[in-house]
Amino acid sequence: MNNFLDSISENWMAHFARDTFWAWPFLENLHFIGLSALVGGLLVLDLRVIGIGPPKYIPMKPALKLIPLIIIAFSINLITGIFFFCGDPYRYTYNLAFQLKVVFMAIAGANALWFWFGEHAKLNALPDGVDTPMGAKIVAAASLLLWAGVIIMGRLIPYLEGEDLLSLIAILAGFVAVFGLICWVLIRLRPTTA
Amino acid sequence: MMEFFQWIEDSGLGVYIRESNWGFAIALSAHAVGMGTAVGVVMVATLCELNVLPKIPVASFSNLYSVAWSGFFINLISGIALYTSHATQYSYQAVFIFKLALIVVGGVLLKLMIDSAKTNGEEAGKTKLFALLSLLSWVGAIVTGRLMAYFFQI
Known about the structure:
The structure holds two protein chains of two kinds. Chain A has helices at 2-8, 12-19, 23-50, 60-64, 67-87, 89-93, 96-124, 134-156, 165-189. By secondary structure, chain A is mainly α. Chain A has one domain (2-189). In chain A, helix 2 packs across helix 5 (67-87). Chain B has one domain. In chain B, 78% of the residues lie in helices and 0% in strands. In chain B, helix 3 (23-49) runs antiparallel to helix 4 and helix 3 packs antiparallel against helix 7 (125-147). The longest helix of chain B is centred in the N-terminal third of the chain and has 27 residues, at 23-49. The chains are: A mainly alpha, B mainly alpha. Chains A and B meet through helix 3, helix 4, helix 8 and helix 9 of A and helix 3, helix 4 and helix 7 of B.
């Protein structure tokens, strides 16, 4: 494991990220812009699938056409993320927040595959104005929750250098509080007239 | 003026966010989620208007703008909390002042884009110009916000 980390910490990506003085902030900016594009695409698509905002449903077909944007935004963040990881591999590998971030991303990836292979064709065939099946709503809600988790864990990387259970509980409490607030706001904003 | 910023920094909220174990980290996490929510929806709306993304009528975004607003308010609250913790430092950082200005400009331009789509139509050059400038302002707000961790002296 350590041989592997040593070798990647000396590759060209690591040297670029560490040794070029503007590289790290430049990559961080790309990572944040990619984050916003990713969340934007996911929000519009997932909230459409969940059914927030009737009666003014966004048509499903253009919403599904946001998937390339989501994939491009994720690719930007995967590539910039690999630069960060190579630049400081020991820090990230043994960081609790980073480990949780990777776990959330893996589950979100599996969830995305389920959406693509299990729900996409059904949703694409859905006539305008018709409500989506419950299974698709659950996949969409899980996607939003998991990506919120990925963002929160990513942002907590500098604050969780040591691993302990109390920290984990504190983060999860913060996570639930923030997401609860968002859900509460969204439910309050949901129009009641059909 | 400095006394006023110092008073903010010494307030209960400022001390809590700065000195508690999780205050700053949790406010920062909420700020990142709110950023994705607010700027993300604006990015999709403006890129649709610019025909970069498949066309979604601007009018059917009306409910999504309320989602963007919820992100904006999460960031207003978490942003105020973060500001109080280092008020004397942030108040004199040029990138922070630029960030605030870009948020105001980006918001006004978005409103102009929505109004122009109603009066001039979605294909009007004016509507597209407002969309492009609004998108650039919001991306600029992200960049200047991120650079606050790097530019302290100017």
